Each structure stands twice: as C-alpha cells, then as structure tokens.
Amino acid sequence: MPYRAGGDDAVVGTTVGVTTALEELKSRGSTLLVVGSVPGSIYAQLSARLLGEGPDRRRLLVEPRRGPERRLAPVERWTPEWTRVFRCRVAARRSAATADASDAQGEPRPGQWGPDADPAAGPGSGSDADGYGSAVETVEGSIADLGAAVGDTIRWFDDVAGGLDPAELRVAFDCVAPLLSAYPDPAIFRFLHLVSFQIRRVGGMGHVRLSRPLDSDPVRLLAPLFDAVIQLRLDGTDAVHRWHFRDADVVSEWLPVDTTA
User: Cβ(138)–Cβ(127) under 8 Å?
Assistant: First the structure.
C-alpha cells in the first residue's frame, strides 16, 4: 500500500488489524521505518519499547552519539553476545581517484557482509564504553565498513544463539541522517536494503529512524524497503504514533507511544 498521512478509509481499531499485522511481523522478521520530526526523547520512548523487554532479547543499537539512557534501561545482559552498541562515525565517500568504484558508490565490498561472510566477534574499531564495558564500540570508516560491522554482528548473534528465535534479535538504527549528508540517495537505498535483508534473514525486528515528515522525499524513497512505517508526532504534550503496514493494507489510529508491543 502507499504510505500516506491520513488515509482515514483504511484506519482500523487496534484490537484487530494492527495487532494481527504486528504479530505477523514478529513471526517472520521485519524492519520498520520511524518518521516524524519530534524530540529525541519521544523517539527514544518508542525505540525502547521496540527493542523489547526481558533478558532473552539480543539487541544491537547503531547511533551517531550516546543516546538516551532510557533505551538501555531494560538491558540486563551487558555482554557482547547479548548486547552491542555501535557509535557510528562514518566518513563521506572517497573520490574515484582514491577509491575503487564500489567504495565510491558506498556499496559493500565483496565478501564483507554477504550471507557467506565469516562471522566476527568484534567488528567495531575501538572502545567507547560509557560504563557498559565491551558491549559499546566505535565503528569508523565508510558506509561499507558500517555495513560490515552490522552484518557481521547479526551473524555473530545467530551463531552464538545456535539459531535465533523469531523476534529474539532487536535492532535500532539511528544513523540515516549522517549517511544522507555523506552519500547519494542510491547508496543509502542499497545499504538499507542489505541491512533489512540481514535482519529478516534471522527473523529479527529492526527499526530505522528518519526524522522527516511522512510525505518528505527521503521517506518516499526509503519507505518501500520496510514492512511498516511508524509516524511519530506530539498531540499537545502527548506523544502519539500511527502505523502504516505495507502488505496488510492497514493504517492504525493515533495511539499513545506507550501502547507499542
């Protein structure tokens, strides 16, 4: 279905269409695009719920800087096989004079993070622990280097778990904005397509933040890559969100952020 702001003819209650569609996404693996120009604290509230509660979640957070602590409050297992936090410091693409063609386009180099690449226990390039030990790392380099770190870590989780259960892996990716400022749109599209594939392949649930309006050009470009788009907004002083499911032809009502499953 097309993503649109409004669409009241497709709006249903939360007890039937939305709940069913969300359970389907959990059972088969999915990625979500979170949009809307709202304060970071509002996004963090939603992101914390999407990352799940309980000790049996494996979590990967990819953020450009230290994020709000509330997202990490549910984390009980601060060891690399359960929790990874990447602080991404991605450089702009290099010129063709100093990089091969694939690097210049921001594409993964062969063998780096395809399905047959070797898993890595520590794909990050440095420590940025903030008191959380080896779970927090800095990932520097190009968009391809970031893709390698994310893909290798997802495979690492899958290997350590002996095969991940549906929705066991939760991924939050907050680095689209710096990537958009450093790379052309086609490179971002390819990158997120591969990230989404890696998450779905192991039955995980990922969400990607793009703090732009639903009808903006970047959202229109990237939305087809995702199973659902979640709009965030402030209704007075209350944070609310709305789900647009791609395949179920379902759009939710505006819901309090704290109702997210």
Answer: yes
Contacts of 132-138 spanning 24+ positions with Cβ under 8 A: 132/72, 132/78, 132/83, 132/85, 133/78, 133/79, 134/79, 134/80, 135/78, 135/79, 135/80, 135/83, 135/84, 135/85, 136/85, 136/87, 137/84, 137/85, 137/86, 137/87, 138/86, 138/87, 138/89
Taken in order 208, 214, 218, 219, the sign of the CA dihedral is: positive
- Percent of the chain scoring above 70 in pLDDT: 73
CA 188 to chain centre: 13
Q: Other C-beta atoms within 10 Å of 146: how many?
A: 28
Q: What CATH number matches the domain at 8-259, 1.10.30, 3.30.450, 3.40.50, 3.30.70?
A: 3.40.50
**How much is the average pLDDT of 17-26?**
82
CA distance 3 to 9: 13
Q: Please check whether residue 243 is in contact with residue 250, taking contact to mean a CB–CB distance below 8 angstroms.
A: yes
> What digits encode the pLDDT tens for the residues 50-99?
998 877 899 999 998 876 566 777 777 878 889 999 999 887 764 333 33
Q: What is the pTM of this model?
A: 0.80
Residues 247 and 224 sit within 8 Å (Cβ to Cβ): no
**Residues with Cβ < 8 Å from 141, sequence gap 6 or more?**
90, 91, 125
Question: Cα–Cα distances in Å, from 24 out to 10, 20, 30, 203?
Answer: 18, 6, 9, 11
